[in-house]
Each structure stands twice: as C-alpha cells, then as structure tokens.
Amino acid sequence: MGRIDTVVVGGGQAGLAVSHHLAAEGVDHVVLERGAVAERWTSERWDSLRLITPRWMSTLPGWEYSGPEPDGFMDRDEVVRYLRAYAMASRAPVRTGVAVRSVRAGRAGFEVRTGEGALSARNVVVATGSTGRPYVPSSAADLTPRVHQLPIRDYRNPGGLPAGGVLVVGASSSGLAVAEELRAAGREVVLAVGRHSRLPRTYRGRDVFAWLRDLGWLAETVDEVPDVARARREPRLQLATRAGARLDLWTAHGMGIRVVGSVRGASGEEVRLADDLAATSVAATRAEHALLDRIDDDLAGGGRPRRPVRPVLPASPRTLHLRRAGISAVVWATGYQPSYPFLDLPVLDRGGQVVQRRGVTPVPGLYVVGTRFQHRRDSVFLDGVRWDAEAVVSHLAGRDARRLAV
Length: 406
Known about the structure:
21 strands, seven-stranded mixed beta sheet, alpha/beta, five-stranded parallel beta sheet
C-alpha cells in the first residue's frame, strides 16, 4: 500500500485549485481523477454549452484568462482546454483514469481504495464538485415507456433525441438554453417552469456580473445571509450567454416555446402541471428588481430607471397529454443532488451534503472543496472555487504545522 500526505479526489477546477495551493505549501499530494482532467465538462455537458460568466471571471490560483475576448463566454470545449492547460502549467500530479472506490478511516489517517490499489493518506480533500448525480423526480418512472427520458447531464444535441416534440422540465439557464436550441432546430418544445431566478445579461451598459462583483454580492458569505440552507437551494439564474442578449420566459415564448407551470406528477401519457406559472414569474421579477435596485442605490447613481412591464404569459394547462402534444422525449433539467458514494465516514447530513465549515469537516484531516455556496456565493462559479481551495489548504497546512510542533 502506497503512502502519501494528501489525496485530492477529483481533477476538475476544484481539485486543480487545491493542488496548486498544496504545491505552494510543499505538501506531497496526488490528484485522483476517474476519467480525464475536466471529465465532467467533457462527458456530462451538452455540446453547445456556454458559461454564464464572462471569461474575465475564470481566474484560478496562479492562472487567469489572457486572451483577446475577456467579455465573451467560454464554450464547453474551451473550458476543457482551459483547465487542462492549467493542469499542465501547474504540473499538477494528476493520475487520470483512477476511480476512488472508498475513503475510510485508516491507521494513520485514511485508507483510500481505488480501482488500481490503495493509498494511505493523512489528509483527504474531496473535490468532486456540486453536480454529483442528476435529480429526476420519482414521477418520471410513471411515464409511458414510449417517451424517451434523460437528465440534462446526458443531453448532447437535438440530433441525439428521437424525432418529435420535447418537454424540457426546469427553467434555469441550462433548461432554457436547451429549450431554445431544440426550438431553433425546428422541434416543438414545451418548457415546464418551476421556481426560478433571472437577471439581464447587461445593465446600464455593463455585464451584470461586473455590477454584482462591485456590489459585493459575489463575495457574500454564509455569515452574511439570513438563511444559508435557503441560499444554497436558490435556483440557477436565467442568464444569456451572448453579450446584450436576454434569456427568460418571454424570449422563449417569443420563439414559439410553449411555457407551462411546474410538473406535479405523471402517469402514462399524462403529465400533471401546477397552476403556478404566474406566481413563480412574479416572484422572480420581484427578486430581479430588488437586486437591480441594490445596484442602482449603491453603485450606479442617478436614480432607478423604469422597469419594463412584461406581458402576461398564456395560462398554463393543468394536464399535458404527451401523445396529443406530439412529445417523444423529456429532458429533465431539474438540478443535481450531492453524491459521495465513496465516503465511508460519518460526515453527511440528511440531505447527503458533506457537513463542513469553510471546507473543514468534523473528521480531522478530511476536507471538501467545490460545494455550492461553500463559503462565498461565487463558490458555484468557475473562479469562485479559488477562495475555498485557499482556505482549505491554509487549514490543512496549519494542522500539519501544529502536528510537527507537538
């Protein structure tokens, strides 16, 4: 059995950021990745995906975007190239194609079992990210087998779906982007909308993320929000990935996408819908305006501009009959659940999340990086992970120093 000071599980942006800081501290470590570097970006994202954050928000420890289009938006393949270039430049000790089977308590810390043997480590950093496994409601099992179903993780492009209409369930940026792509490809699309949030791509002539950065919204911590659990459950933004564009329910409706309420259940050919489209849309509008008001009051000056009044969306039916609507496929863009099947340690809460404070878990030597709103609101974005990685390695290195001083 091999021995090493620290094992990092996961070779995406979180694991690579941790590795950079560990190397700077002189900590002997290895990064174990089940596939290739940036595996999830490669095999679990659709072909045309673009980040909702501009390229200037792609900073990692010791690494930042230096190309000609900082205000543009990386596509999936560019993200993969970016992370792999980072891994090479930082000489991260990544072992690809090594799946971690279990992490359990060992004689001198932890025993990490993999498909290629086992390692003994004093520290383990779990950096597998916040998109562990897709959440698909149990009612999906009650739909007719005639309809092809898949989580958005498995969607690649319109050509990968059977001919016919598509029901997209979920209206975050991901759900809306896929719905728009399918509609542009000539498909009839129904978009089932639950609780959601949105922002304009640009506001007062600047990218909205520039305003959010200056406002301090991105840097808000778990100590600064009234309800941390609720903040971590906030829906992902409806946000366009083209400068000056708008992505919301009205642009979708204008493309010919049929917008309906949230899914409440299913049986055979029928999907039951809630009569909540107006309520969720109004709530999202109020939240959007409240955040824009903060920008106006704190940063922009010159008073609050008049907010546009959106037309009323068509009333949602209470039932959608899939065959009559010509629907042959359902894409579940309903988010993700935490998944740590390899953790054989008492650190998960009832929801399956790792219990942590700034990445430090109740088990000495076990850390986590890459969870949503881990400490700062921007933890979910590509460059936000750097703050969590720095805090974790600072604690880990300090723990090692305290051990050596005893």
